[in-house]
Amino acid sequence: MTSAANSLRLCLRTSNQITSRLRTVQRRQVPLARRALSTSQARWVAKEKGKDDEDSEPPELKYYSSFNDPGEALRNRLKDETLSEDDRATITGMLEEWQLLPQQKKGDAERLKRDINNEMSDLRRIINPKRDAFWNDSDEKDTDLITDEFGEDDFEEDDMLSMSHGKLEEHREAREYARITVWEMPLLSQFAKSFQPPAKEDCLRFRYTTYMGELHPADRKVVVEFCPKDVPGLSEAQQLKLKKLAGPRYNPEKDIVKMSCERFEHQAQNKRYLGDTVSKMIETAKDPTDMFEDIPLDTRHHTFKVKLKYPKEWYINTKRREELEALRKQSLLLDEQRRATGGLIDGVSIIKKNLLAAVEPEPVMELRGGPRSGKMRR
Amino acid sequence: MPPRLKVWAACRALSIRPRPLSARPPLRCAAVPVRTFADSTNTTNTTPAVPASKLPEGYEDPEPESQAKKNESEHDDNVLQALDKLKMISYGLNPFDPAVEGHKYGLPQLPLPSPMHMKHRYDDVVVQLTKLIMRDGKLSKAQRDMAMILNYLRTSPPPKINPSKPLMPGSPPAAHLPLDPITYITIAIDSVAPLVRVRALAGAAGGGKALDIPVPLAARQRRRMAFQWILDVVEKKPSKGSGRGMFPTRVAEEIVAVVEGRSGVWDKRFLLHKQATSARANLNYKAPPRRH
Amino acid sequence: MSASNCLRCCLLRPSVVGRAGATAATAKASAAATARLRQGMPLAAAAAASFSTTANRGANQKPKPGTKAAERNAPPSIRQGKLFTIKKKKKNDSGARVKSPLPGERKAFRKRILLSNTNALPVPGLTDLGAESMLDPSNVCKVLSLPDDVVDQLRADEAFKTTQCWSMFRKPSILIRTETVDLITRMHAAAKTNKTLRLVLTGDRVTGKSLMLLQAITQAHLNDWLVVNIPDAQELTTACTEYAPILDTEPIQYMQQNYVLKLIQAIKKSNEKLLLKLTTVFSHAGLPQNIPIKSPLMQLANSAKEAEGAWAVFQAMWQEMTAQGHGRPPMLLSLDGLTHIMRISDYRTPAFNPIHSHDLALVRLFTDHLSGATSLPNGGAVIAATNRNNAPRNPSMELALAQREAEQLGGGKDVPQPQPYLKGYDERVEAVLRNVQVIKLQGLSKLEARALMEYWAASGVLRITVDEKSVTEKWALGGSGVVGEMERASLLTMRF
């Protein structure tokens, strides 16, 4: 209901007459700005007598007169002397058109106006602020508030729960993306380019980073990798010099030089810098004046990882199995031979045999500084 | 109530078969899985030729000669094996020895011999003494110390046993001890271990006095007490040399002293036994009923 | 304190009495004071102020020895506050007085070597080593015992170590390994052609390097070689023995007279027979005693009685022992702990610069012979054994030995190269080890391990049946037959 009234109000906004009336209504009900905290009741400022009468009269009384039909309104408009020639001509044209309209259509306009008036009656009603009402009164409705909090959270059994709304929202989202997948994504294939493997001359591999449109301090970083062997037109010595020039950027295990740059603000600048540096390095490597022969390649920055592998000789296959079988057989045979000839040595039995051979006489109980015999007997 | 005879129930278990099962000729097509593809065009050829090897047993092959021969030889082998087994039975052997039959490496010896068992790798006494030597949870250090003790006992000359401080009855002669250091240390500890401890029961003697009551000890408790006494003596002894071998040397020296009857631990034992003997009258003491 | 005494005290001494405070005045003290008064003696203690806020201290008063205990027991002045005093530890609270060992006794006990265990069973069929038995390949995988006189000589040489298990067996015996035969054959070949075998024994921990050295020394003694053995090179370079610069040397060298004296005595003892037989051929000046020509070398050795002059005697002895053309026997110069002499020593020059080990004269003598700069004119061998356990980091030695080893195996490409940026390489070390032979000891073979374990079991110290199963078990526990680890696994355990 209220929404309909609102939309109507928006439709009729251009009408001077109505807005002014609304404005007067607003003006009337807005009280003066109050103090944040006050113990005294708010009152209207006592007005001076002379001014009071002038102010209380509505300044544009003429707009209060209403028109029965647009023709009347247009005629009334034409009475205004301040109108420009163009406007006057337009209004005159409109008036002529109005008069040419059949009577039924004119009645329609009449009805429309009546309907609008009915609808607008709520808004036009003059609200008289209660004199002794206070805003913290529970019955009072604060009209300044944009949302009507009263009873807002009450569930009146006429809607889904918020969880369901959330679920529904999820479905909507999923469907939206599904629509995109079905209808818009296939269009991307128009932009597809076939993959061109890098040519032999393209020895530099650049790596860029994107954060999908987000701003990130690392999105300007560019990394280049290349193998000194792949750089065209370098001799062995020059390659070695290039590695030495690269310093700790050279990985001896992978034989790759890796450099990065994030010094400049834009990716392209960084890439340009890297390209320049690499070309400078290659140029220097080709320079025969000093080939750095006295300097050995430094690999201290790199720790070589030793990857232990299960020895191939230990794999169990038929050959190995036979070997093991033979070994076991041989060792069993050796043991058996020893056992047969009595050469198998058993530590425990040897000790027993030797100790039994040297039998000692049992120690005889003798008295040595012990208690006296009398005590012993007891 | 006697059970009723249920004749009909017995009849229900009977099954009457007009022909033996094996006499039924095998179905040819049942054994051949046939699969046709959805897009295959030659739908007419639904029964492909069956390879001879896939034919079910008993199917009459037009050329069964080789197969029959093979079966025959297998059969002969089985017969020979069976005869072997019968022979074994006649010799009084078990032809289906579980230690041999069905096991690649045979069955383990049960109960497991102690070196095979993780928790019983060492002698019980040695384990207990090692744990008593251990300080700050350093077990491997204690184990090394124990090994050194045992080695000292092995290398020291046979003990001269003092008859007034006799060892446990049934102990081997002194000359046998050094080459069996575990027995050596066990005998030393067991010989000097007290049989009882004297428990002082507070307030039981009346007038707030404690009453001494002798309490028998279990074997493990006895060993612990004896070894603690030995360790007490060892702690007070100065070492002759330096280095990590000194503590075990002192312990081993004390153990030799125990066996030879020179150690002060014997006096402790005698004193305790004397005290227990004098307090043996208190064994009749019964605790008064608890008052609430 | 009785009231009358107190009164008298107050009368006598108007103020607080000196040292211990008036509150502590005992009856005895006051009586003594009255006695003094009567005798007309001055009261030194009475010179204090009648009233004072400071604590009393008798700095210039000597307490009487009799009153000392009384003073200590007296409570301190209230104003003095509480003083924190550390109580003296009571010594020997157990009451039993024990004799503390004399200086050096504990070390001697630690270093003592027992070579026989009377409890161990005599091994049947154990034969003594002969002069040729270590040359015979058929003796590999056999345990042979050391003859008694050789044992004495080895003891003098300090070739036995405390970490070896000699004390568990009846008689010191050794296992002949394939490496032994290899080493002894090389020694013989060198001695025959009057050449010097220069060799380094290396290998992982407890693989038997020192024992291999002992076998070499044994062989030298059995064949009547002269033996000079430096048992532990650590003693030379860890600054634990005295050193002095030798004059007229450039760059300056240092002698270690105390150590040299000890070495001379060891040489004397171990080579007694030979030294008695050999006679001097040179006249030596500057010795503590005048040794005429053709007197036995023993006399020369005996002339070193004190550390002073020991170096000169050693030089003279060395000259005599290596004299060419006088029927001198071959010589074995051996050293254990090579790692310690291949580094900068802990000694310092007077300017506090570190001294390189090779600037120590005795070490220099050895390294010169090892590198081949000087050779033994009568043939012989210079053998050094590395040590792993208590070894300083020595990259150049490691590298040099690895290189020599790779070269011996004939691998042209696999010879390890020095790392260009590694610090700590020493050129002098590389120069010494540039041209030596290397024997790298590894684990025993199964047969050798079996022979050794059979010896242990027959001696009664290994209470198991020695069959292939137990041998394989111990062999595997010992890290593929590393002999020391096998020993640890079977002889130094709680299980027998």
TrEMBL record, chain A:
Pfam families: MRP-S28. The keyword Ribosomal protein applies. The keyword Transmembrane helix does not apply. InterPro entries: Ribosomal_mS35, Ribosomal_mS35_mit, Ribosomal_mS35_mt. It is found in: Mitochondrion. Its main location: mitochondrion. Keywords: Mitochondrion, Ribonucleoprotein, Ribosomal protein. One of its GO terms (cellular component) is mitochondrial small ribosomal subunit. Component of the mitochondrial ribosome (mitoribosome), a dedicated translation machinery responsible for the synthesis of mitochondrial genome-encoded proteins, including at least some of the essential transmembrane subunits of the mitochondrial respiratory chain. The mitoribosomes are attached to the mitochondrial inner membrane and translation products are cotranslationally integrated into the membrane. This is Small ribosomal subunit protein mS35. It comes from Lasiosphaeria miniovina. The lineage of its organism: Eukaryota, Fungi, Dikarya, Ascomycota, Pezizomycotina.
TrEMBL record, chain B:
Gene3D superfamilies: Ribosomal protein S7 domain (1.10.455.10). This is Small ribosomal subunit protein uS7m. It comes from the Eukaryota. Its main location: mitochondrion. Component of the mitochondrial ribosome (mitoribosome), a dedicated translation machinery responsible for the synthesis of mitochondrial genome-encoded proteins, including at least some of the essential transmembrane subunits of the mitochondrial respiratory chain. The mitoribosomes are attached to the mitochondrial inner membrane and translation products are cotranslationally integrated into the membrane. Keywords: Mitochondrion, Ribonucleoprotein, Ribosomal protein. GO terms for cellular component: mitochondrion; ribonucleoprotein complex; ribosome. Belongs to the universal ribosomal protein uS7 family. Residues 119-280 form the Small ribosomal subunit protein uS7 domain. One of its GO terms (biological process) is translation. Residues 66-75 have a biased composition (Basic and acidic residues). Pfam families: Ribosomal_S7. InterPro entries: Ribosomal_uS7, Ribosomal_uS7_dom, Ribosomal_uS7_dom_sf. It is found in: Mitochondrion. Residues 39-75 are annotated as: Disordered. It comes from Lasiosphaeria miniovina.
From TrEMBL, chain C:
Keywords: Mitochondrion, Ribonucleoprotein, Ribosomal protein, Transit peptide. One of its GO terms (biological process) is mitochondrial translation. One of its GO terms (molecular function) is structural constituent of ribosome. It comes from the Eukaryota. It is found in: Mitochondrion. Residues 51-81 are annotated as: Disordered. GO terms for cellular component: mitochondrial small ribosomal subunit. Its main location: mitochondrion. It holds the Pfam family DAP3. InterPro entries: Ribosomal_mS29, Ribosomal_mS29_fun. PANTHER family: MITOCHONDRIAL 28S RIBOSOMAL PROTEIN S29 (PTHR12810), SMALL RIBOSOMAL SUBUNIT PROTEIN MS29 (PTHR12810:SF0). Belongs to the mitochondrion-specific ribosomal protein mS29 family. This is Small ribosomal subunit protein mS29.
